[in-house]
Design goal:
Layout lengths: L2 H11 L8 E4 L1 H8 L3 H14 L2 E4 L8 E5 L3 H12 L4 H10 L4 H14 L1 E5 L5 E8 L14 H10 L4 E3 L6 E3 L2 E8 L2 E6 L13 H13 L12 E7 L3 E6 L6 H5 L23 E6 L3 E6 L12 E6 L27 E13 L10 H10 L2 H8 L4 E3 L17 H11 L5 E6 L5 H13 L3 E6 L8 H4 L4 E7 L5 H5 L7 H5 L2 H16 L3 H18 L2 E13 L3 E2 L15 E2 L2
Parallel strand pairs: 5-14, 17-18, 17-19
Antiparallel strand pairs: 1-3, 2-3, 4-5, 6-7, 8-9, 9-11, 10-11, 12-13, 13-14, 15-19, 15-20, 16-20, 21-22
Helix pairs in contact: 1-4, 2-3, 4-6, 10-12, 17-18
Length: 581
Amino acid sequence: MKLIEHYLILFTAHKNQKNGVKIETTMSEIMDILSCSRANARGVLNQLKEQGWIQWNPGRGRGHRSNINFQLSLMDGIKMFASAHLVQDFKGGMEFLHSLSIPKQIHSILGEYLKEWFGLQTEGEKEAKHILRLPIHRDLISLDPARVFTAFEYHFVGQIYDTLLRIDFNTKQINPHLALGWDTPNDKEWTFYLRKGVRFHHGRFLIAEDVRYTFQRLLDSKTSFFYWLGRYLKKVESSGDDTVIFSFNRPFPFFPNILCSHHASIVPYDVDMQQQIIGTGPFLVQSFSKEKLIMEAFDHYFNRRAWLDRVEVFCLPEELQSRFLYKMMPENVDSMEVRDKPITQHIIRTQILIFQTKKPGPQQHPAFRRAIYFAIDRNMMIDELNIEDVYATDSFITNHSKKRFPTYTLSEAQEALKESGYSGETLTMLIPPNQWRKNALWIQSRCNQIGVSLKLQPLDLKKTLQKEFFRQADLILIDVSFYGDSEINLIEPFGNNSFHRQLFTLQENQQMDMFIDRFVSEKSKSKRFTIWNEFEDWFRKENLFLFLFHLKEESAYSSSLQGYKFGPFGLADFHNLWIKF
């Protein structure tokens, strides 16, 4: 344990402590507080005295009490601890602070300090380092492009790796990136010509074998988000170091869109992705765990070095999120040392209720699903729970949703329930941990009113790709994020290994495959969206998904940050950011 930790434990253990005021104590009390031997306690006290943090007058003789006088204020001690330890061990540091008996007014000050600790930081004097420090509220599970699941992970993959092509989310145009260009000598073959001089983070130059290996890896692993591409992709061949040829068993005009997905980021053929995180992107990974991600600028990035020197991302421990809650919102972007109008971006998430029809039970019956649909009045739910920044929907896409929704009575829901043959069994509904629990409780109460018993169970995101995890679920309440009208973003969740596919019957999955086949085979974007609308109509007709509402989230960054570009899901592309002082 570090000396500052000993000091904070001693300080907070004395209920009436004040700076500059002597407090009577004994060596035995000090030993109990620090949970150490007399010799160790004496050593700690001597070190604290040398630092000037305490005055210590030991009692001489039996019956004479010692005096301790705290010289360093509690808040200064907390700041000293935080600056020294949070970057190394954020979770452990926050848990240590949480364990202390800190007065309520100090909690408020600590919250303000965290606002300053996050945001843009400048360290060093001779060679200033510009660091962007961000909080997130979910564990980071994986940074393997083929397997990332959450929007946050997907975003960070885009900072660490590169794709052959890249979509401009403003113009919707697909542009070369790692590839300089491409040819389509026929409607079943695509030839890509690679950029020269692109380095991986471990020093080697990118070659065609890396591209071939990346796509073979996507097809070989059933945990890959693009495993379903094997239905169309016949083979990938390298021709020399700079040319890659993709051959399909049918025309595949949608392929350039897939090459823009972060799931199709190029990885090196000579690295075990389970052991190392190596890409060609503007940032390399210096440290990664479920609680922390430290990325440093890659000096040899082929497309200009990032201005930011480091990006530090920390996950607030679940039990502390409400206590030390911080988000990059407009009211606290002053942590970036600016006072002007922030740049804001609205991110749309869709909350949906999914039925597991593959599992035997009443949820397999269309009338049961219809009964739940009748019981859940979206607008009533929003009004009764007073949920802000949401609006009812029946689509994944905001501008495709109806403006008005029919309302049904509980009697109509009960009639549908009778038709289903439901006999009172309890069903399990998985819900995001600590998030939207009040929504889940409302749904549970509403179902109870028509006679359906629901048990709520937290959804463990670390197990989302494990089939056995879903066997317990009858329904799942979840949020999905879509950015604009990105077509690849629409169909990715319905690939072979997505958790959606794990919930449905073979016949339903085959129906989804038919829609996807039509979608990826269509050349016209407008016609693809017509097919997508048919796809959603089928979901609505079968009530496999119950669309609840769209959630609007606002992220904010200071307008002194130049080169700001919003990437997928409305998050910042760190590569282009620089600050105007």
